[in-house]
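[recover] target loaded
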């Protein structure tokens, strides 16, 4: 096995007081890794040091009427001895006062400045006339805009609740979101927030407790066959609640996560091969991209977990050809309700269109064609049976998903089900991928538009011929638009708002 070059960097503690067990606990993992890789024969450089700069040091120096340099030198010497005494295996333990460190940082900052990543700016800072110095944030006593009580610096014990937000947040989006957050009441029990996908408009915040996910991890991990030996490939933004939940659940079980920030299916497959991934977690839209751009088989993948978008026989067959040992697991869920139901690929074949049976601890009822769910694993404020507007019906013990509220196009009184039409188009040999939207029409009220990615080797005439042959006349799209790939949101869902923009620009 080829030896690897591995660099491990430990955190740099402030030189303002003696170390305690919490410091050692947080740094111990780096030492364990360094020893592990050395035992494997790899070339390891394990580095850390003392942070000799910062507000905590100047405050300590002022309190003891000493210079900041004296304080930093005292505790750096103490830190180095402590780490040596407990047996830490640093290859290099330095300090931010070292000439090499300062010159290296200066060189990096100069390069960033020259490339335009660092810029000069005037900023107001709190200054005390009495003590003739600038004040640190922690020295300020201010009024918290959230609770109205006195707070220290820029923090308040009332607590700001973190929100997992989408990565591409421009100023307009941010302003609208902040305005929304300022106008709503946050549940007292909320510990963090997540945002809906925003595929149908402005994302809305959903408030959760830690228990609403953590108490469910063991249940869902059992269904998804996730344990300490799991190596799962996940692609997409961490802001997608499905990704957030899955990553945390895998870490909870002691497994490993492999991911990529690139929209490159060939790269995904190479990572899956290289890391010998046992699981893949993707929505069907991205699974189709994998199939489109990859042909080499991969026997390490045991399970593919996918959400309840359009699935078809051809997709499952092709996945089995690429991953011959895999078991397909389809789930249905909602950001508000967590996972709701699940089934295997074999069960889907037996009950086409199903999203399976309810997860343990979840109760499902169907009233007036709408799916109602009762769960203790949902967002704050849910009580009893609730619905997110999804439609479905029972087939024995299995839920058949009939589409989300609004997935119906009213074409002059004739109702076209978007989900059904996409499923019918998806299986045509001339179509690689498809997304259907409704657009305003002066004559019929709404018309059907299909955005189509043609299959390799097929022409537009082939597609049109297949559509005329296979789709009932009253459901055939009036407009066909041909594109290279179906656009996806940060949450890996079809970006139908963008498709509407494309259509309106024509």
């Amino acid at each position: 096995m080829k030896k690897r070059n591995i660099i491990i960097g430990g955190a740099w503690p402030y030189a303002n007081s003696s170390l305690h067990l919490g410091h050692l606990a947080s740094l111990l993992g780096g030492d364990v890794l360094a020893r592990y890789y050395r035992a494997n024969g790899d070339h390891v450089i394990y580095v850390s040091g003392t942070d000799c700069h910062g507000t905590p040091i100047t405050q300590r120096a002022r309190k003891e009427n000493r210079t900041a340099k004296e304080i930093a030198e005292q505790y750096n010497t103490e830190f180095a001895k402590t780490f040596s005494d407990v047996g830490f295996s640093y290859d290099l333990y330095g300090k931010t006062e070292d000439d090499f460190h300062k010159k290296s940082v200066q060189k990096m900052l100069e390069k960033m400045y020259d490339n335009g990543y660092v810029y000069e700016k005037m900023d107001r800072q709190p200054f005390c006339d009495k003590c003739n110095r600038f004040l640190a944030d922690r020295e300020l006593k201010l009024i918290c805009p959230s609770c109205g009580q006195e707070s220290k610096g820029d923090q308040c014990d009332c607590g700001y609740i973190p929100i997992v937000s989408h990565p591409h947040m421009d100023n307009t989006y941010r302003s609208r979101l902040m305005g929304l957050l300022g106008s709503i009441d946050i549940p007292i029990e909320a510990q963090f927030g997540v945002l809906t996908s925003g595929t149908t408009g402005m994302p809305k915040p959903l408030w959760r407790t830690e228990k609403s996910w953590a108490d469910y991890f063991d249940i869902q991990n059992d269904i998804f066959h996730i344990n300490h030996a799991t190596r799962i490939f996940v692609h997409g933004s961490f802001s997608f609640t499905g990704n957030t939940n899955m990553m945390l659940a895998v870490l909870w079980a002691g497994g490993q996560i492999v991911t990529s920030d690139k929209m490159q299916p060939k790269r995904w497959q190479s990572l899956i091969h290289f890391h010998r991934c046992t699981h893949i977690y993707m929505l069907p839209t991205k699974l189709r991209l994998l199939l489109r751009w990859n042909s080499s088989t991969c026997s390490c993948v045991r399970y593919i977990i996918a959400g309840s978008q359009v699935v078809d026989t051809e997709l499952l067959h092709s996945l089995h050809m690429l991953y011959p040992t895999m078991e397909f697991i389809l789930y249905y869920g909602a950001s508000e309700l967590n996972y709701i139901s699940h089934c295997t690929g074999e069960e889907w074949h037996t009950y086409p269109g199903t999203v399976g049976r309810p997860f343990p601890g979840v109760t499902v009822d169907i009233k007036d064609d709408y799916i109602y769910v009762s769960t203790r694993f949902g967002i704050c404020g849910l009580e009893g049976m609730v619905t997110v507007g999804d439609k479905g019906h029972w087939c024995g013990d299995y839920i058949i998903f009939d589409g989300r509220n609004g997935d119906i196009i009213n074409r002059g009184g004739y109702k076209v089900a978007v989900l059904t039409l996409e499923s019918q188009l998806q299986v045509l040999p001339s179509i690689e991928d498809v997304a259907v939207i409704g657009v305003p029409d002066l004559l019929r009220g709404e018309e059907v538009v299909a955005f189509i990615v043609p299959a390799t080797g097929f022409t537009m005439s082939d597609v049109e011929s297949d559509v005329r042959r296979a789709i009932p006349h009253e459901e055939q799209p009036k407009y066909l638009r041909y594109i290279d790939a179906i656009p996806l949101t940060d949450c890996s869902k079809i970006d139908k708002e963008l498709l509407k923009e494309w259509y309106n620009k024509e």
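[recover] notes: The chain has a mean pLDDT of 88.
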